[in-house]
Amino acid sequence: MWRYVVKRFLTIIPVLFGVSILVFSFIRLIPGDPAVAMLGERATPEAIARVRENLGLDKPLYEQYLIYLGKVLRGDLGTSILRGDPVVQDILRRFPATVELALSAIFVALLVGVPAGIVSATRRNSLFDNVSRLIALTGVSMPIFWLGLMLAWLFGVVLHVLPTGGPLTTELSLTYKPLTGLVLLDGLLTMRWAIFADRLKHLILPAMALGTIPMAIIARMTRSTMLEVLGQDYIRTAHAKGLQERAVVLRHALKNALLPIITVVGLQVGRLLSGAILTETIFSWPGIGLWAYEAIQSRDYPIVQGVTLFIAIIFVTANLSVDLLYAAVDPRIRYE
Amino acid sequence: MSTAVTSPVALSPGIKPRSLWSDAWRRLISAQVARFGMAIIILFALMAVLPPLLAPYDPRTDMDLASRLKAPSQQHLFGTDTHGRDVFNRIIHAARVSLGVGLGAVSVAVLAGTLLGLVSGFAGRWTDLLLMFLMDIMLAFPGMLLAIALVSMRGPGLFNSLLAVSVVSIPVYARIARSTVLSLKEREYVTAARCVGAGGPRILFRHIFPNSLPPVIVQATLGVASSILEIAALGFLGLGAQPPTPEWGAMLADGYKYLTTGAWWVLFFPGLAIMLTVLGFNLLGDGLLRRTFATPGTALTRP
User: Fold this and answer.
1) Do B259 and A150 touch (CB under 8 A)?
2) What pLDDT, in 10s, does the model give residues A293-302?
3) What pLDDT, in 10s, does the model give residues B156-213?
4) Does the structure show a pLDDT above 80 at A206?
5) From the CA of B249, how many Å to the nearest CA of chain A?
6) Statement: residue B294 has pLDDT above 50
7) How far is CA B265 from the centre of its chain?
8) What b/e readout covers A256-277, taking b as 16+ CB neighbours within 10 angstroms?
9) pLDDT for A332
10) Which SS3 state, helix, strand or coil, does residue A63 take?
């Protein structure tokens, strides 16, 4: 087991190097002079020279990469062209909002997806099964930005029950002081129910929009693994012992079907983080997704680079954790 | 993977072999879900081919500023947008753009990915290691994110978004093609071909390539679905089609500014078009998957 863990850790190191080379070479993809592209045609030669120096474009290529790598390893992801702030500082400041949104989305997805999958599997080919499978397939076909817009329109504009965007009501956000950075949790911990309720209201729609595709995937996965498990001999034995249906399904079947479900949840991390760019843009949610969108609009390339690298690192780490979790949880799995 | 080799090549000489295509088609139409998906795709394909008949106005210039943001009526089935253009007309014209770019992106990815995978699996050793390492690096990014990053560097536009979406999905096809080659390489008919003196490229392209197609085709069908979604997402972020080109994602981006005015039709219909097209390809792909690969554990992934 430990040998496997070490081996898996060692395999991601070259991949991360490769990732850093790819992200570094992003600047090379910009047509023409990157400095001119960032500042516009009318920029003064001095300003262009300053940006070129900031990006290290005046040095040979391998040196540029080594400098870049050295900075990244020290936790420096460059500085914003427009504001001059260190990218990493802004990422860390904005990341909690994205985490809060992503966790809420996966919570919504599990809350609906797992029960739907279980019921589908136990009542195979029933009306419920067919309808829920159709909904799941529609769910994975849904452009989440469209879903988000329609939710905002329905609940925000027509029914006026939920806000169409933003992180908190303005009056409350003035008195809010971050504790963990996750506003919902902070509201709970400091027992400021007004903040908790208000944040919840602001979270529901973006979480639903971001959670729909994972929800559909989880429902499909739960259904298929449950079907597989329910066909096993030990389930027949459990039935034969006279156990109640409920106990058989939840205790005997679900427990054994959980591993693939956990895996599929772990594999949603990438989808949630890239989906956050769209969801946060629609709902003006102040996470790294919205920030990346604004950076793209204003051609602040170091921010785009930094966010891409940051998300890739999290993505690789998440996939690694899923692998290790799989090995740790299931004693049947042996790795060389 | 066992069904992947039940192709004409493996049939005994007495039976008249069905061609790969007719075999695939027979399997396909017997699946109801796939038929439904196919019907949706054909509907949208017709919209893409026949816009002059269905939607006679020019989607870019046919503006009537006097009737901006009018709700759906008999005159304008899906209402009008902020420039007074007929939304229905633009959706029909956009079908060509979205389907065309989606199919184009998948074609490029399938071509490049399959070629890389075949070479990687067939050559083995260092070539294989190096190519698969490159694929692993690309897979270290969430696909959508890498596409967004690439287009934001190269600059917005339909062509760049087509390229980005296809580059991002190359590893998926490369991996599938490679794993099929690895299992096919050891088959008797390959050994037989080698015995009669066929060279490497001939074995690869005449014997292995045709038999590695089925899993790639299934994946490509699902790939069209996700490509269309990704292209629309890029369009929505302002990175894809530029106004006034009609494209579903870009139409949503345009309508988004008027969300609070209650003009729901500029948002609802383009999104519905995206969802239905994607659903069509997902249904078809799902049906194909079920029909062609009834065996569990087939290594197919949704990108």
Assistant:
1) no
2) 999 888 888 8
3) 899 999 999 999 999 999 988 888 888 887 777 877 877 887 777 777 777 777 777 7
4) yes
5) 9
6) no
7) 27
8) bbbbbbebbbbbbbbbbbbbbb
9) 67
10) helix
| Angstrom distance (rounded) from CA B177 to CA B292 | 16
In angstroms and rounded to an integer, the radius of gyration of the C-alpha atoms of chain B is 22
Selecting from A29, A146, A270 the residue whose C-beta is nearest the C-beta of B150 gives A29
Place of tokens 């919209």: B47
Convert the pLDDT of each residue in A10-23 to its tens digit: 888 889 999 999 99
* Ramachandran assignment for A75, one of left (phi > 0), alpha (psi -120 to 50 degrees), beta (any other): left
CA B23 from centre of chain: 22
Mean pLDDT of the residues in chain A? 85
Going by pLDDT thresholds of 50, 70 and 90, the confidence category of residue B147 is: very high
> Average pLDDT of B122-146?
88
How confident is the model over B70-95, as pLDDT tens digits? 777 777 777 777 777 778 888 888 88
Q: Which residues make Cβ contacts (< 8 Å) with residue A66, sequence separation at least 6?
A: none
Question: What mean pLDDT comes out for the span A48-56?
Answer: 76
Nearest beta carbon to residue B133 from set A18, A149, A282: A18
Burial of A161 (0-12, 13-18, 19+ CB in 10 A): exposed
- Residue A185 — very low, low, confident or very high, per pLDDT cuts 50/70/90? confident
SS3 per residue for chain B: CHHHHCCHHHCCCCCCCCCHHHHHHHHHHCCHHHHHHHHHHHHHHHHHHCHHHHCCCCCCCCCCHHHCCCCCCCCCCCCECCCCCEHHHHHHHHHHHHHHHHHHHHHHHHHHHHHHHHHHHHHCHHHHHHHHHHHHHHHCCCHHHHHHHHHHHHCCCHHHHHHHHHHHHHHHHHHHHHHHHHHHCCCHHHHHHHHCCCCHHHHHHHHHHHHHHHHHHHHHHHHHHHHHHHHHHHHHCCCCCCCCCCCHHHHHHHHHCCHHHCCCHHHHHHHHHHHHHHHHHHHHHHHHHHHHCCCCCCCCCCC
Query: A86: which strand partners?
Result: A79
**C-beta atoms of B141 and A18 within 8 A:** no
Closest chain A residue by Cα to residue B276: A141
Taking the C-alpha atoms of A268, A273, A277 and A281 in order, what is their torsion angle to the nearest 10 degrees?
Answer: 90
**Chain B neighbors of A30, CB-CB under 8 A:** 153-155
pLDDT of residue B63: 67
Backbone angles phi, psi at A79, to 5 degrees: -125, 150
Give the separation between CA A227 and CA A208, rounded to whole angstroms.
27
CA distances from A187 to A110, A174, A191, A288 (A): 23, 14, 6, 22
- The reported pLDDT for the residue numbered B257 is 78
Whether residue B238 contacts residue B156, with contact meaning beta carbons closer than 8 Å, is answered with yes
Note whether B270 and B192 are within 8 A (CB): no
Q: Which residues of A touch B148 (CB under 8 A)?
A: 274, 277, 292, 296
Q: Do B275 and A146 touch (CB under 8 A)?
A: yes
Looking at residue B80, what is its pLDDT?
Answer: 75
pLDDT of residue B103: 92
Distance between CA B55 and CA B47 in Å, rounded? 9
pLDDT attached to residue A333: 63
Tokens 């659903």 sit at which residue? B279
- Here the tokens at position B150 are 């690439």
